[in-house]
Amino acid sequence: MRAQTLPASAGWHWLVSGFAIYRRNPILLSMLVLAYWFTILLLNVLPVIGAVAASLIIPGLSVGLMQASRNLERGQAIGIQTLYGGLKENTKTLIALGALYLVCTLGILGISALSDGGDLLNFMLSGKKADRETIEEGNFFLPALIVMLLMTPVMMAYWFAPILAAWHKLTLGRALFFSIVACWINWRPFLSYGIGLLLVAGIIPGLLLGVLLALFPGAQGFITALITMPMLLAVGPTIYASFYASYRDIFGISEIV
Length: 257
Hints:
Blueprint (H helix, E strand, L loop, with lengths): L9 H15 L1 H20 L3 H25 L6 H6 L5 H26 L2 H8 L5 H6 L3 H19 L1 H7 L4 H14 L1 H29 L4 H32 L6
Helix pairs in contact: 1-3, 1-11, 1-12, 2-3, 2-12, 3-5, 3-12, 5-8, 5-9, 8-10, 9-10, 11-12
């Protein structure tokens, strides 16, 4: 197992490659991403148990989306079975990854509670909107900063771990190790990738929405839907496909077993 060190420009190339993969079959890839989201949402309807179950299967479902991206790049067929087929690859390790990620996330939220008395933790668990007083006082800034800093190494360890466990049959520890090393030695392309994501999924749609609302203030609902739907059906699948592109470029297709 060997990870390549790539230039900073590779981060933008991942987004371009993701869009190229999406264009090969935009309807089917969008349907798979929607099925992924709906599966997680439906499970979360069940209190506690549903959230835990969703966390356990997310690594397997993400492998399914990576498989769909690889199939499209190779000109092979994809279907709903592609998404859920990822759950069958090294299942125990994928479930362990989901459980570990859940424990780490809850642990980090617990640590953040030491700085704000648990306001952010309660907000995240309840899903309720933050009240105006809390926002104005800035009570979420410090705990949010703590969460961001502590979650960064967790995300680095988790980024490639599911695909390494599924396609390379690595153990839990080795999958996490190779993932965090690959992210660490490629911090430059990941930085440019993050900036690209911010532009494509945040700044550009936000600016476009602002301009359209200024031009047509009476059509707020229609314009919001006009911007949101392409985000869901095009930008979302492109981003998931770009995850596969980052794996492909860093580890190489020849490494797949």
